[in-house]
Each structure stands twice: as C-alpha cells, then as structure tokens.
Amino acid sequence: MTTLKALGSTAIAAALLSSTPGTSQQGPADLVFRNGRVYTANDQSPRAEAVALKADKIVFVGNNDGANRLIGPSTRVIDLNGATVLPGLTDAHVHLSGVGAREMNLNLEGANTLEDFLARVKARVDQTRPGQWVTGRGWIETFWKPPVFPTRQDLDRIAPNHPVYLTRADGHASVVNTAALRLAAITRSSVAPEGGAINKDPQGEPTGMLIDRAQGLVGRLVPAATDAELDEQILRGAQREIELGWTQIHEAGSSWATVERLRRLYREGKLKLRIYQSIRGPGADVDSLIARGASVGEFGGRLTIRTIKVTIDGALGSRGAALLAPYSDDPKNTGLITADTVAFKAMLLGALRNGIQVETHAIGDRGNRLMLDLYERTMQAVPPDQRKVAEPRWRDEHTQIVAPVDIPRFKQLGIIPSMQPSHAIGDLYFAPARLGLDRLKGAYAWQSFLKLGLPVAGGSDAPVERGEPLIEFYAAVTRKDLLGRSGEGWHPEERVTRPQALKMFTLWPAFAAFEEAHRGTIAVGKQADLTIFDQDIMQVPAANILKTKTLYTVINGEIVYSAGR
Length: 565
What we know:
Diaminopimelate Epimerase, Chain A, domain 1; 21 helices; 33% helix
C-alpha cells in the first residue's frame, strides 16, 4: 500500500509543476486570489500567497508578482487581505440525505437535558394533527443527568395521541412511544431481528428503545418521504456542506435509486458539490455495482461510484458496538454483529476481483477484528495478479475502538482508517464508562495509525455529528471538547499536528478515493477546488479555530459560496 512517505513523492511532483507557473498557462487566468495565506498541503512547497485558476484547473501557485502577470482584462481578482486558502476540504464520511433531513425535520441536536428533549418534541406534537407521525433525530442522552435513555412512558406523557419515532444522533438506536409500539405489534413477547435489540425493563416490558436492526420494526411504518422531499434533502444537505467549506464528500452508503436521483440533479444543474458515492450492501445493489464496475468522474469529475459500504456492528453510545469483552457498564452485553457475514464474504471476493473498493463500518474492537479477519482472508484468496486493481485501498469507517495488538494489521493489509475526530470529543463523556480506562488505549488512535505510515481520511459522520470542518479540525489537534476540557485516560498523545490535520481533510481523503493525482493539494494542474477561511487555522490559538468563518468555497474553478453574497 502507498504510505505517507510515498504520498510525499506525489507532493514533490506537484511542487515541481507549481514552481513553474507559466508552463501550463496560455493567456490570462479566469480567477486570481492574492494576498492570502496559502497552505498547499504539499510538504515540498507548503506556503504561497496567491493562486490563479483557469476553467476548472489551478494554473499558478506562488507569490503575488507571479499571479499579477496572469491578470487580463476579464480576470476576476480577489484581494484576500490575509485570509487563509486551503485545498478544497473533503468530508470523508457523511450521510448527505441525513444532513438535509435533519435541516427539514425535528432536529433534537443540542437537547442537553431530558426536559429540553421532551419540550422540543411536545412543540412538534402540538403542531401535528392527532394520529400523524412525529419523527426526529439528534438526541443523545450522555449529556443528561442522569445519562439514561428516554422511555416510551416519557413520550406518552407528551404524545398520547401520536405515534412517535425519534432516532439517536448515531443513527443506531431510536426511542418510540406506546402508540408506535402498538402499530408495530411489539409486545413483551416480541423477539428482535438478528443484529438488533428490543430493550425491556425488569418486568419484561418494552422500554421503547430499539437498537440497530430492531429500529426497522417501527421505522418501516413511518410514511416515506416524497420524491420532492428526497430532492430537497439532498439539495439542503449539499448547500450546507458548501457553506461550511466542504468541496467534496464521501457519501457513506446509499442505493442505486439515490445515484439516479443525484445524476438527475447534476443534469439539472442543481448540484455543485463533489460526491464520492458508496452503495450499501450486501445485496442486489452491490451485486450490480460489482458486475457493472466503477463509474469514475461523471459530470466533470463531480460524481464517482466505485465503493461498497457495509455495516458490521452498532454504535458505542447505544451499546451496539461489538466488543471483545462485555461493556463495563452493561456486563451481560458485548454488542451486536449486524452484517450477514456469509453474504459479506462472498461480496468481498467479487469486489476484490473486479476492482471495487470496500468500506466497512466497524466501531468496537470485536467489530474491527472481524473486519480485519474478513479482509485478510479475501486478500489471501485473491492475490494481486487476479485483481482488476492491485492496490484495492479498502477502508475501515470509524476505526473507533481497536485492540492495540490489531493496529499493526492495518499496515500489513493496507487498510485505510477513515476516522471522525469529533467522535472522540463527543464520546469523551461516556466512553470511559462503556469501556473502562484500559480499552481507551486503542480508542480514536489517530497518531498511532499515522506513525505506521498510514493515511487517515478525516470525516464528520454528519448527521451523527454536526458535520462542521472546523469542529473536526479542532478536535483532531486538541483532543478536547468544545469548551477545552479533556478527561482521564483520554490519551492526548493521539492528537495530531495541524499539518497532519490539514491532510486528514485534503490529501488523505483524496488518496482514499484514488484521486491524489487530481486533488488534495494546491498545485498546478489539479482541480480548482479551494476552501478560504477568515482566520489562519494553522496558527491561531486552538479556541479561535471554532470562531473561524468560511469566506469562499470554490469547486471546479467556480465560487459556489461567498460570505459576502
């Protein structure tokens, strides 16, 4: 597998191009940014003060004088007055429709007490006709006192006449009220589907909490979104990403139906955001992807479909992450394996032979070990000379809790850890209770993976988290919560440097998408994607990172967001 050292040689090649600004330029540039603090993510040529773009490519990186020579009568010139220019940021793990749906529906994010949570739900209930569903997402009980799951009885008090279905922030658990349980015919004798759990009280009655696959028992009854609403979810989500400074997202699992919807929205000129799309499996959709092969760079490089997404276990907060030993705060529980491992094994063989990337959601140490075992057996069964792509760049999404003995296996197998820094600062409040201090040694181990020479692709997992690049950057470099607090056993040595954090959201996601030759650094000939902030996040005090604002987002040479617009 290509390591950080090898990626450095890619940066050297880019630097050679960018050191000769006239070589790829015929005539004036279309757009020049000057008087900026330019961070290229290129170790050989890390700083500049101006960037010039023509059409969809970068044509100059260097000083103001060099950029000024490319200004013609039609060139748009923007004086940045010291603002910070970065390679276009990439969120390497996000659920775009979920972000849009959160914006459209009842958003329970930030409900820091049970009372606040219930008040928000009641406000929506009061606006909804009796008998109609009330749905929402974003609650997380770990900030409440006491930090316990809500119950159906809590919801019954405020919504006796509406079925209610409210999904936890991580998407791996939902709480429902009695009306919803009745519609789904869930009783004390109900058995959860494999890979799920129906939580019950000491008397054996359902509490209203449904974990992982058990959510579908009620979720299937919630009225489906209309076509117009599905479009709006994507467009609202994409607009939010662009306004935050993201130029590309890696969409973590959807269907061919969603791909066709994206294609239509691109054709209609409604989407500007780059999307690296994965198809959720195992199943018929991924069988189709394996048979068809990858589709790379549709719509001017904005849409690529070449990856399969599989979920192998649940989430830590809802105690569904698969652990090697029981939860410290739930000694009878070791979490859930949610994947059909028989189908998973067959799918992996077909994917490796046919050049399809695989990314697997694995959070617990048992989930991560099973993922590594399955990947290893597949790679042994299909040697490089029998693969369409010799270096498959398979990924582990989240990589949250890994037994320390298993960390070197990522390097041995060439597995890319795709990690979300905000999970660490959010989980800070409950991970010690779930795991105990010893297991935190392998938790959110960003620096341990980097020291092995592995690129860590950084993401947000929105709408599980807020999805803001500056929160992710801050979390990566401080390993503290948004108030600057840490906790016992939180291993500050695993935080990353600011240059490393920059690459987590630029060069290394590009590598994880086979795109490092085209994006991920600011260099002549690369795609003209830039993110421009008002403060220098590479230098300002850490707390000021969170106060930074997006000034411009540039995709394919087009300013798609301007704070002054």
